[in-house]
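Progress narrative, work stream C.
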Amino acid sequence: MVSANVARNIVGIIGNVISFGLFLSPVPTFHRIIKKKDVEEFQPFPYLATVLNCLFWTFYGLPIVVKNNILVTTINAVGLVIELIYLSIFYLYSGKKMRIRVSLVLLGEAVFVAVVVVIAMLAFKFKHRAVFVGIMCDIFNIIMYASPLGIWKKVITTKSVEFMPFYLSLANFSNGCIWTAYALIKLDVFMLICNGLGALFGAIQLILYAIYYPSTPKKKKGKETVKPAEVQLSGQGAAV
């Protein structure tokens, strides 16, 4: 019989693969930015939010906070690098005002996370440290989950899923489910809360897709398929 630890590691590895795919989902957008040498109407804020989220979960997965949780650190560390690459591309092709804004937000995030790390290490003993860091992780994860609400409103008002790609919605749902399972095998309340919400929100997206797909205008061949709304949605998916 497979032990709980082995089962958890297998589920965690599957979660790493799914999350990695989600982190790569904005690649077509940045290929377009590089090709046009212009960020156009795209915004950096989903990626800035994901950077902060990855920083917190990378810290949470370290043995100094939670033991036997290194798979959480690995995927979020990889995600952090990927998001920073996206932001570097955005920085390169954006105007001066946006560059300053992105730089200030990144600096603020770095300082904020550093303060949280110092407080966690100095003010909390090991058994209470996970609670403090876990609460911080969940707070920012829940804030991130509010991002797709604008997309849902657009889907409902236009009766079209044009701006909510099916495979990305399915991947978000799968990601939430697999990390919820990971949190349940060896109960981790903080991961369970954020990923349970992720699975729920993913399920809602799929239900909306099923309801409004029949009324969605069919795309004509040869038309541009990358849209800003897809970028805002895809920037949120991989947080665990």
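Work stream C, second folded protein:
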Amino acid sequence: AAVGKLPPPILAFNDGAFSYSGKEDYLYKNLSFGIDMDSRIAIVGQNGTGKSPLLNLITGALQPCEGTISRHVGLKLAKYSRHVGLKLAKYSQHSADELPYDKSPIEHLQSLYHEKYPEKDIQAWHTQVGRFGLTGAHQTSAIKQKCVVRARVPRALSSY
């Protein structure tokens, strides 16, 4: 279903600061920016430069030591969840490590979402996984078998 635009900003950092210790050895200080429905963001950098803490501040997994992060009421920030207003998905190099390698993509999606979507039959699960480029045997083989499967299943999960 089409989603109407939420008024900007849907997420706003206002003079945010962050430190793992909670003291003044800040990883980030004076963070002020907004994200709206048209934003497309990629966070890149060398290992250890603070990409993950920034994403965790955005998703709410971490809280700023100073300043505020305001989120629109229609913004749902949860890993692998669905909301009619807006959804933020986080995909990282570690997302594939969280998958159960002994299950197929279809089995994994069913185990996570069968209770929420009991009306979905096996064809609906195949269609959902197929939207992310997993077809044929990739849908029913154990996730550990193929790198392409490990890369695409987290994206399929983020669609829920």
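The CA atoms of residues 5 and 37 lie 6 Å apart. No further action is required on this item.
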